[in-house]
Amino acid sequence: MYQVKVEWISARDGGRKAPPPAGRYFAVSRFPEDKEWQNNAWSVVFELTATLMPADKNDSFVSEGSVRFLVENAPHERMKKSSCFDIYEGPKKVAKVFLLSRV
């Protein structure tokens, strides 16, 4: 499990209308090395603890919390070697996730 900062893409830019509430949130991950990721995507589980409101309407929401893969046989080395990855809801990219530290 990793501590994370999640920068949500605004609805204006094709993301969510609002970030999910605090608690458990599921999404599909896409790491930088993933080429045909939709055929081999891995689900991730977040425990979101807080969401910071944007300073102005041009900023994005930022959530804090932790993340892990949904299943044990996932490629855990991807989180070890990457500093960030994107998350999707279906075909729509909704956020960029920054891995801060391992917990």
Entry summary:
The chain is mainly beta and 103 residues long.
Q: What would the average pLDDT be, to the nearest integer? A: 92
Which stretches are low in confidence, meaning pLDDT under 50 for 5 or more residues running? Answer: none
Order of helices and strands: EEEEHEE
Helicity range: under 10%
Shape: globular
Query: How many β-strands, per DSSP?
Result: 6
CA radius of gyration is 13 Å
Portion in strands: over 45%
Name of the CATH homologous superfamily = Translation factors
The largest beta-sheet arranges its strands as 1-4-3-2-5-6
Q: How widely separated are the two ends?
A: 6 Å
CATH class: Mainly Beta
- What's the domain count? 1
User: Which class of secondary structure composition applies to the elements?
Assistant: mainly beta
CATH topology: Elongation Factor Tu (Ef-tu), domain 3
User: What is the number of helical segments per DSSP (H or I, 4+ residues)?
Assistant: 1
Main beta sheet: strand number and arrangement?
Answer: 6 strands, antiparallel, barrel
Corresponding CATH architecture: Beta Barrel
What can you see in these coordinates?
- This protein is mostly beta strands and 103 residues long.
- It has a single domain (2-102), classed as Beta Barrel (Elongation Factor Tu (Ef-tu), domain 3), CATH 2.40.30.
- 5% of the residues lie in helices and 50% in strands.
- It has one helix and six strands.
- It has a six-stranded antiparallel barrel.
- The mean pLDDT is 92.
